[in-house]
User: Fold this.
Amino acid sequence: MDEKSYLYAIPHEYFEKYGVRRYGFHGTSHRFVSGRYGQLHGSIEGTKIITCHLGNGSSISAIKDGKVVDTSMGFTPLDGFIMGTRSGGIDPSVVTYIMNKEGLTPDQMSDLMNKKSGFLGLSGVSSDCRDLWAAANEGNKRAKLTLEIVSYQIKKFIGSYAAAMGGVDAVIFTGGIGENDSAMRALVCEDMAFLGMKLDAERNKVRDEAKISADDSKVEIWVIPTNEELLIARDTMEIVSKLQ
Assistant:
């Protein structure tokens, strides 16, 4: 990423002394699915892609010409949007406010945001999206609200990354939720026609590699299962072959 994407607006000395900056995570997954899209498309050059790795830990990346422009996770995997037990990005003052009110140590507050928040903390039901759907279908309002918040936050990232890249050619869903939760994909794509995204409801009933956008959708929508292990093996083989 360029400096404008990864630097935080804190005293620059903390970047120089401690390396405090946005790093992002799930890079192997984002690289695999964007590369796979490039294979399906014919080339990754000239493309603007938004990859959505959705699971217990989730992140979204903007990729232009095969190079990452921005990504939702930051200095740690806690940043971004709501996940299984992680809060995602919140007002930093909320952290100090709760610490002062509850008398929490930094480690205790970190544990609260990483392990007790997200789907679990907001819904009070579970960190598993499947449990949230089951509870929502039984009338649990907090579970339903949690699902709405998840899709809402993902929509915002897609919209902001389209703006950052000056458009978008394809949105890709991957990860445990992205690959398997057709209802969440439908929620995310709902009312996104203004951006050129139009989902085909029948095509969306998949759990495998497939183009799920409608024929008249200006933006392609894909489900591409990630394979981080395969990419790691390929990278390892490439490195080893250069040493011989």
